[in-house]
Write a structure and sequence with these properties.
Blueprint lengths: L1 E6 L8 H15 L4 E6 L22 H12 L2 E7 L7 H8 L9 E8 L4 H13 L3 E2 L4 E4 L14 H5 L3 H13 L9 H6 L8 E2 L5 E2 L1 H27 L3
Parallel strand pairs: 1-2, 1-3, 3-4, 4-5, 4-6
Antiparallel strand pairs: 7-8
The structure holds flavin mononucleotide (FMN).
The site of flavin mononucleotide (FMN) has 14 residues, from loops.
Protein backbone atom coordinates (compact mmCIF):
# COMPACT_ATOMS: atom_id res chain seq x y z
CA UNK A 1 0.00 0.00 0.00
CA UNK A 2 1.43 3.34 -1.06
CA UNK A 3 1.37 5.68 1.95
CA UNK A 4 1.82 9.41 1.47
CA UNK A 5 2.75 11.52 4.46
CA UNK A 6 1.77 15.10 3.68
CA UNK A 7 3.72 17.80 5.50
CA UNK A 8 1.15 20.54 6.08
CA UNK A 9 3.55 23.25 7.20
CA UNK A 10 5.38 25.35 4.58
CA UNK A 11 6.71 28.26 6.61
CA UNK A 12 10.39 29.13 6.93
CA UNK A 13 11.92 27.65 10.05
CA UNK A 14 9.23 24.98 10.35
CA UNK A 15 9.75 21.84 12.41
CA UNK A 16 7.21 19.79 10.43
CA UNK A 17 9.77 17.96 8.24
CA UNK A 18 11.68 16.71 11.30
CA UNK A 19 8.52 15.21 12.78
CA UNK A 20 7.62 13.78 9.35
CA UNK A 21 11.03 12.10 9.04
CA UNK A 22 10.59 10.62 12.50
CA UNK A 23 7.14 9.26 11.63
CA UNK A 24 8.47 7.75 8.39
CA UNK A 25 11.42 6.14 10.16
CA UNK A 26 9.23 4.67 12.91
CA UNK A 27 6.66 3.30 10.48
CA UNK A 28 9.39 1.67 8.42
CA UNK A 29 11.07 0.29 11.53
CA UNK A 30 7.74 -1.17 12.61
CA UNK A 31 7.02 -2.63 9.18
CA UNK A 32 10.00 -2.68 6.76
CA UNK A 33 7.68 -3.43 3.85
CA UNK A 34 5.91 -0.07 4.31
CA UNK A 35 6.01 2.02 1.18
CA UNK A 36 5.90 5.50 2.67
CA UNK A 37 6.83 8.76 0.94
CA UNK A 38 6.96 12.29 2.27
CA UNK A 39 5.03 14.91 0.33
CA UNK A 40 6.31 18.37 1.13
CA UNK A 41 3.83 21.09 0.16
CA UNK A 42 6.71 23.52 -0.10
CA UNK A 43 7.98 21.47 -3.05
CA UNK A 44 4.47 21.10 -4.45
CA UNK A 45 3.79 24.77 -4.84
CA UNK A 46 0.16 25.40 -5.78
CA UNK A 47 -0.98 29.01 -6.17
CA UNK A 48 -4.02 29.84 -4.07
CA UNK A 49 -7.25 28.54 -5.63
CA UNK A 50 -6.08 29.16 -9.19
CA UNK A 51 -8.21 26.69 -11.13
CA UNK A 52 -11.18 28.13 -13.05
CA UNK A 53 -13.30 24.95 -12.82
CA UNK A 54 -14.71 23.30 -9.75
CA UNK A 55 -12.31 20.60 -8.51
CA UNK A 56 -15.17 18.11 -8.32
CA UNK A 57 -15.51 18.38 -12.11
CA UNK A 58 -12.00 16.92 -12.52
CA UNK A 59 -11.23 19.36 -15.35
CA UNK A 60 -7.89 20.82 -14.33
CA UNK A 61 -6.27 23.43 -16.56
CA UNK A 62 -3.00 24.26 -14.83
CA UNK A 63 -0.01 21.96 -15.26
CA UNK A 64 0.82 22.09 -11.55
CA UNK A 65 -2.70 20.92 -10.68
CA UNK A 66 -2.50 18.11 -13.22
CA UNK A 67 0.83 16.99 -11.74
CA UNK A 68 -0.61 17.24 -8.21
CA UNK A 69 -3.64 15.19 -9.29
CA UNK A 70 -1.41 12.51 -10.84
CA UNK A 71 0.64 12.32 -7.65
CA UNK A 72 -2.28 12.13 -5.25
CA UNK A 73 -4.14 9.59 -7.36
CA UNK A 74 -1.21 7.20 -6.79
CA UNK A 75 -1.56 7.40 -2.99
CA UNK A 76 -3.55 4.65 -1.32
CA UNK A 77 -3.39 5.88 2.26
CA UNK A 78 -2.58 9.33 3.62
CA UNK A 79 -1.09 10.66 6.81
CA UNK A 80 -1.71 14.38 7.20
CA UNK A 81 0.85 16.00 9.46
CA UNK A 82 -0.45 19.37 10.52
CA UNK A 83 0.68 22.06 12.95
CA UNK A 84 -1.90 24.19 14.71
CA UNK A 85 -1.92 27.83 13.70
CA UNK A 86 -4.26 30.06 15.68
CA UNK A 87 -6.58 27.20 16.44
CA UNK A 88 -6.67 25.82 12.90
CA UNK A 89 -4.55 24.06 10.30
CA UNK A 90 -2.39 25.92 7.73
CA UNK A 91 -3.91 27.60 4.69
CA UNK A 92 -1.37 25.89 2.39
CA UNK A 93 -2.77 22.52 3.41
CA UNK A 94 -6.36 23.62 2.75
CA UNK A 95 -5.32 24.96 -0.66
CA UNK A 96 -3.58 21.69 -1.54
CA UNK A 97 -6.67 19.70 -0.56
CA UNK A 98 -9.05 22.08 -2.35
CA UNK A 99 -7.18 21.83 -5.65
CA UNK A 100 -8.48 18.26 -6.09
CA UNK A 101 -11.51 16.20 -5.21
CA UNK A 102 -11.88 12.70 -6.67
CA UNK A 103 -8.17 11.94 -6.13
CA UNK A 104 -8.76 12.04 -2.35
CA UNK A 105 -12.13 10.37 -2.27
CA UNK A 106 -12.58 6.98 -0.73
CA UNK A 107 -9.02 6.79 0.60
CA UNK A 108 -8.05 6.24 4.26
CA UNK A 109 -6.64 9.27 6.04
CA UNK A 110 -4.96 9.57 9.38
CA UNK A 111 -4.21 12.90 11.09
CA UNK A 112 -1.15 13.70 13.19
CA UNK A 113 -1.26 17.19 14.68
CA UNK A 114 1.29 19.09 16.74
CA UNK A 115 1.23 22.30 18.75
CA UNK A 116 1.93 23.32 22.31
CA UNK A 117 -1.13 21.45 23.47
CA UNK A 118 -1.27 18.84 20.73
CA UNK A 119 -3.17 20.71 18.02
CA UNK A 120 -6.51 19.00 18.63
CA UNK A 121 -8.46 21.94 17.20
CA UNK A 122 -6.47 21.86 13.94
CA UNK A 123 -7.00 18.10 13.74
CA UNK A 124 -10.76 18.46 14.29
CA UNK A 125 -11.04 21.07 11.53
CA UNK A 126 -8.91 19.04 9.17
CA UNK A 127 -10.99 15.95 9.81
CA UNK A 128 -14.11 17.83 8.83
CA UNK A 129 -12.49 18.98 5.55
CA UNK A 130 -11.17 15.50 4.73
CA UNK A 131 -14.63 14.12 5.29
CA UNK A 132 -15.83 16.80 2.87
CA UNK A 133 -13.65 15.32 0.10
CA UNK A 134 -14.95 11.91 1.15
CA UNK A 135 -11.79 10.55 2.68
CA UNK A 136 -12.14 7.74 5.19
CA UNK A 137 -10.90 9.51 8.29
CA UNK A 138 -10.50 7.51 11.43
CA UNK A 139 -11.32 8.38 15.01
CA UNK A 140 -8.02 8.43 16.91
CA UNK A 141 -5.90 11.28 15.68
CA UNK A 142 -2.39 11.53 17.14
CA UNK A 143 -1.70 14.80 18.96
CA UNK A 144 1.93 15.70 19.63
CA UNK A 145 2.48 18.23 22.36
CA UNK A 146 5.37 20.58 21.60
CA UNK A 147 5.61 21.75 25.20
CA UNK A 148 7.65 18.62 25.92
CA UNK A 149 10.06 19.21 23.03
CA UNK A 150 13.23 21.25 23.10
CA UNK A 151 14.21 23.03 19.90
CA UNK A 152 17.83 24.21 19.67
CA UNK A 153 19.09 27.48 18.15
CA UNK A 154 19.35 25.94 14.68
CA UNK A 155 15.68 24.89 14.82
CA UNK A 156 16.35 21.19 15.40
CA UNK A 157 14.30 19.19 17.87
CA UNK A 158 16.70 17.92 20.53
CA UNK A 159 16.74 14.16 21.02
CA UNK A 160 13.67 13.67 18.84
CA UNK A 161 13.65 9.87 19.31
CA UNK A 162 13.22 10.19 23.02
CA UNK A 163 10.92 13.19 22.88
CA UNK A 164 8.43 11.55 20.51
CA UNK A 165 8.71 7.93 21.66
CA UNK A 166 5.54 8.26 23.76
CA UNK A 167 3.51 8.81 20.55
CA UNK A 168 4.74 5.68 18.80
CA UNK A 169 1.99 3.33 19.89
CA UNK A 170 -0.79 5.83 19.22
CA UNK A 171 0.66 6.34 15.76
CA UNK A 172 0.79 2.64 14.93
CA UNK A 173 -2.75 2.20 16.26
CA UNK A 174 -3.95 5.05 14.05
CA UNK A 175 -2.04 3.65 11.06
CA UNK A 176 -3.46 0.17 11.54
CA UNK A 177 -6.98 1.54 11.92
CA UNK A 178 -6.58 3.54 8.71
CA UNK A 179 -4.98 0.69 6.80
CA UNK A 180 -7.75 -1.69 7.78
CA UNK A 181 -10.44 0.51 6.35
CA UNK A 182 -11.58 -0.82 3.05
CA UNK A 183 -9.69 1.04 0.42
CA UNK A 184 -11.30 1.82 -2.87
CA UNK A 185 -10.35 4.72 -5.06
CA UNK A 186 -13.63 4.24 -6.88
CA UNK A 187 -15.66 4.35 -3.70
CA UNK A 188 -16.90 7.82 -4.50
CA UNK A 189 -17.52 8.85 -8.05
CA UNK A 190 -17.62 12.47 -9.06
CA UNK A 191 -21.28 12.21 -9.93
CA UNK A 192 -22.11 11.23 -6.33
CA UNK A 193 -21.02 14.67 -5.32
CA UNK A 194 -23.46 16.28 -7.71
CA UNK A 195 -26.34 14.28 -6.32
CA UNK A 196 -26.05 16.15 -3.07
CA UNK A 197 -26.57 19.41 -4.88
CA UNK A 198 -23.58 20.90 -3.11
CA UNK A 199 -23.11 23.55 -5.76
CA UNK A 200 -26.33 25.15 -6.90
CA UNK A 201 -25.00 25.92 -10.39
CA UNK A 202 -24.22 22.29 -11.10
CA UNK A 203 -26.98 20.18 -12.60
CA UNK A 204 -28.08 17.33 -10.39
CA UNK A 205 -28.44 13.76 -11.52
CA UNK A 206 -31.75 11.95 -11.79
CA UNK A 207 -32.28 8.20 -11.87
CA UNK A 208 -31.87 7.73 -15.60
CA UNK A 209 -28.48 9.51 -15.44
CA UNK A 210 -29.69 12.61 -17.19
CA UNK A 211 -28.71 15.92 -15.71
CA UNK A 212 -31.35 18.50 -14.92
CA UNK A 213 -30.23 22.08 -14.36
CA UNK A 214 -31.56 23.74 -11.23
CA UNK A 215 -33.22 26.56 -13.17
CA UNK A 216 -35.54 24.03 -14.85
CA UNK A 217 -36.75 22.95 -11.43
CA UNK A 218 -36.94 26.52 -10.23
CA UNK A 219 -39.16 27.69 -13.07
CA UNK A 220 -41.04 24.41 -12.96
CA UNK A 221 -42.15 25.06 -9.38
CA UNK A 222 -42.88 28.73 -10.12
CA UNK A 223 -45.06 27.69 -13.06
CA UNK A 224 -46.84 25.13 -10.94
CA UNK A 225 -47.52 27.78 -8.28
CA UNK A 226 -48.91 30.17 -10.88
CA UNK A 227 -51.23 27.69 -12.59
CA UNK A 228 -52.36 25.82 -9.46
CA UNK A 229 -55.27 28.24 -8.58
CA UNK A 230 -56.60 28.02 -12.15
CA UNK A 231 -56.44 24.26 -12.07
CA UNK A 232 -58.27 24.14 -8.73
CA UNK A 233 -60.92 26.60 -9.99
CA UNK A 234 -61.38 24.55 -13.16
CA UNK A 235 -61.72 21.34 -11.17
CA UNK A 236 -64.32 22.85 -8.81
CA UNK A 237 -66.37 24.33 -11.68
CA UNK A 238 -66.32 20.97 -13.39
CA UNK A 239 -67.52 19.22 -10.22
CA UNK A 240 -70.32 21.71 -9.69
CA UNK A 241 -71.42 21.21 -13.29
CA UNK A 242 -71.05 24.87 -14.31
CA UNK A 243 -68.82 23.86 -17.23
C1 LIG B 1 0.88 31.49 12.70
C2 LIG B 1 1.09 30.59 13.89
C3 LIG B 1 0.06 30.36 14.75
C4 LIG B 1 0.22 29.48 15.84
N1 LIG B 1 -0.85 29.18 16.62
C5 LIG B 1 -0.71 28.24 17.58
C6 LIG B 1 -1.84 27.79 18.33
O1 LIG B 1 -2.97 28.19 18.09
N2 LIG B 1 -1.64 26.90 19.31
C7 LIG B 1 -0.40 26.37 19.60
O2 LIG B 1 -0.27 25.57 20.50
N3 LIG B 1 0.68 26.76 18.88
C8 LIG B 1 0.55 27.66 17.89
N4 LIG B 1 1.65 28.05 17.15
C9 LIG B 1 2.91 27.44 17.45
C10 LIG B 1 3.14 26.26 16.50
O3 LIG B 1 2.35 25.16 16.84
C11 LIG B 1 4.59 25.88 16.49
O4 LIG B 1 5.34 27.03 16.14
C12 LIG B 1 4.92 24.78 15.49
O5 LIG B 1 6.32 24.60 15.48
C13 LIG B 1 4.45 25.13 14.10
O6 LIG B 1 4.74 24.10 13.21
P1 LIG B 1 5.84 24.31 12.06
O7 LIG B 1 7.10 24.73 12.75
O8 LIG B 1 5.99 22.99 11.39
O9 LIG B 1 5.28 25.35 11.14
C14 LIG B 1 1.49 28.90 16.08
C15 LIG B 1 2.54 29.17 15.19
C16 LIG B 1 2.35 29.98 14.11
C17 LIG B 1 3.47 30.21 13.13
Amino acid sequence: MKIYLIIGSVRLGRIGPQIAEWIKKEIQANDPSSDIELIDLREWYLPMDDEPNLPASGHYEKEHTKAWARKISQGEMFIFLTPQYNGGYPAALKNAIDHLYAEWSGKPACIVSYAYRGGGRAAAQLKQILTGVRMLTQENAVEISLSQLVVDDSGCITDIENALSQYKQAMFRAGRASGNRQFSSNAVRRSDHYEEGVYSNIPFKIHNRKYVPYWVLHFGFLGLGFFAPFLVAYYQMKRSGSI
